[in-house]
Amino acid sequence: MTLPPGSFGLPLIGDTLNFVQDSEFAQKRHQQYGPIFKTSIFGQPTVFVCSPDANLFVLSNENEYFVASWPPSTKALIGSLSLAMQTGADHQNRRKLLYQAFQPRALAGYIGGMEDITQRYLQRWTQMSEFAWYPELRNYTFDVACKLLVGIDNSSETELGHYFKTWSEGLFSVPLNLPWTQFGKAKKCRQLLLAEMENIIRARQQGIPSKNDALGLLICARDDDGNSLSLEELKDQVLLLLFTGHSSLSSAIASFCLLLAQNPDVMAKVRAEQQQFPATEPLTLEQLKQMTYLEQVLREVLRLVPPFGGGFRKVIKACELGGYEIPQGWSILYQINQTHQDSSLYPEPDRFDPDRFSLERSTNAKPFSYVPFGGGLRECLGKEFARLEMKLFAARMVRECEWELLPDQDLNLIRVPNPHPRDGLQVKFRRKMVS
After folding, report:
1. pLDDT tens by residue, 2-29
2. 169 lies in a domain?
3. Taking the alpha carbons of 159, 309, 285, 267 in that order, is the dihedral positive or negative?
4. Rounded distance, CA 341 to CA 343, Å?
5. Tens digits of residue pLDDT in 110-159
6. For residue 386, what are the domain limits?
7. Is 262 strand, coil or helix?
8. All residues at 6 or more sequence positions from 431 whose CB lies less than 8 Å from its CB, including other chains
9. Contact status, residue 308 vs residue 418, Cβ threshold 8 Å
10. The total number of structural domains that make up the chain
11. What is the pTM of this model?
12. Sign of the dihedral through C-alpha 118, 122, 124, 129
């Protein structure tokens, strides 16, 4: 068998700079080489794949041919003790433990906190009237994640929020550890974040144990031998939870706001559905489940602009894919974004069409053709938390608010670390009277 087509790029750095800076890097090379190609990024020979069959192969062969892998910058900044870096039995054991914070009973308990923070931000945005929305949405999702996962209030206004922003911006950067580089600044902020986390954890350990949030659950957790998590592991796990509960959600919610502003016909349908529910009553899980058209809209948002472009795996055993050899020791990147843009799966893939996910049209969907949260053993642990927050936010926004895009702004997406409009999504915002 032969290796996949492609080029390794420049010596040492390969195609890393092109990959980080060019949002159409993969698309251009797929057009040149087909659905599978090789390159070199982050110092590693890497195979890019994009099809439901390739997704199925990669995601269902965890620990057989592949293990989770990350670029060097991500590994250094997320931490070796976090769930993202754990593999095999360690990963499965920790995943079961962390899942308790995202099971249905826990999710139902989060609604009140989400509602309170949402209302606080709606009041703030009404007063601001015209502003760049994406930075505000980052603060919103960070406050929700900190309150519900770690139990601390108004975190975006503290040093914790500033450290976190700089840290997350370095996750997919060139790992040059110098004070003025993006990675160097992020590395410094990781240490500052861990110091803050340690203070929070120690304060919680000395107080009354609580299982009302993910941190409380982890502090109280014991393994089969009765051992608790070390302070070092607690810090890494909490940092990962805040990242996954915040960064991708900021992107997804911003995409929802942008796409509805650009598609008034869809906005009208969403508003019509919301009129079926009592406007002045608190939202419930049961009500949210009944919002079927809103569900279609959110699914289409995540298809068109998935918060993560794909996922890295390390090849631990040589294998064959698409008629090519994938050597042991290489990396493979399954691509969510490119799969969702496949016109054989999604006709007119660039068009925003929530009816793709209507019951009639989605019954014959090909497995692993829709993977905004990944799949297999490493499917996003906070998937249902994200879906709940997106749906609650969307319902409140459509019921209570109106917004329009301000002219003369660049709406092209910056893709790394998560997609967002280049000029920050500038809007004119106002609150409606709710009767």
Report:
1. 999 999 988 888 898 888 788 789 999 9
2. yes
3. positive
4. 6
5. 899 999 999 999 999 999 999 999 999 999 999 999 998 888 888 888 88
6. 31-330+339-431
7. helix
8. 122, 126, 400, 401
9. yes
10. 1
11. 0.91
12. positive
